[in-house]
Write a structure and sequence with these properties.
single chain; 200 residues; mainly alpha; 10 helices; 0% strand
């Protein structure tokens, strides 16, 4: 790989990271090429070189967020597969603890989560970008598979409805942890939901 290609990727990453911080801190409306140049501490015009329009800049940021979410989903899948190799079956508390750990990991990246939620609300006029952050994304497909497998291993119902409910609950808890309350017991909420599904 040439140094120019490597430096170009590093510059785009710096631009995306800076855009995420701006959106998380000041909102989507504050996102401009000049603001990103300042935040990234790069020469004026650098952001425009890599993303010529505002939509291209937003797409660069959305792609960065989607790539990180995909990595999270794949890491969770690997973690669950490792657990499944050791144990034939998970109990409810173990599954709740695994999901709570994922929520904490995502919420720890507060800027990413705040930017994601802000963009989801802002991108109604760009559905192809909004889809990368919502249920139409590749990440969601991976998450569906992982969730169905986890529910099966715990001996719980794993219909499409149950899978989507658990994904929705998890996403809601990430939002709650990120934007509202950092002390509520995630594991207790998840365990109560999972125990409830066993009786339905």
């Amino acid at each position: 790989m040439s140094s120019n290609v490597a430096s170009g990727r590093e510059r785009r990453k710096a631009i995306a990271d800076s855009g995420i911080r701006i959106i998380a801190r000041d909102g989507v409306r504050a996102l401009t090429h000049r603001a990103v140049d300042r935040e990234a501490e790069v020469p004026q015009g650098s952001t425009s070189y890599h993303a010529k329009t505002r939509l291209a800049l937003v797409e660069l940021i959305v792609d960065a967020l989607a790539a990180r979410s995909k990595a999270d989903a794949e890491e969770l899948a690997d973690s669950l597969n490792t657990t499944f190799e050791r144990e034939h079956r998970l109990d409810v508390e173990e599954l709740a603890a695994l999901i709570a750990g994922l929520v904490e990991t995502l919420a720890f990246r507060r800027d990413d989560m705040r930017a994601r939620y802000a963009l989801i609300l802002e991108l109604d006029d760009a559905p192809h970008l909004r889809a990368k952050l919502t249920a139409d994304s590749e990440v969601h497909a991976i998450t569906q598979q992982v969730t169905a497998s986890a529910l099966t291993r715990a001996g719980l119902p794993n219909s499409d409805v149950h899978v989507e409910e658990l994904i929705a609950l998890t996403d809601s808890l990430v939002f709650h942890r990120t934007a509202i309350n950092g002390t509520v017991s995630l594991q207790a909420i998840l365990a109560a939901y999972l125990r409830g599904t066993a009786t339905t």
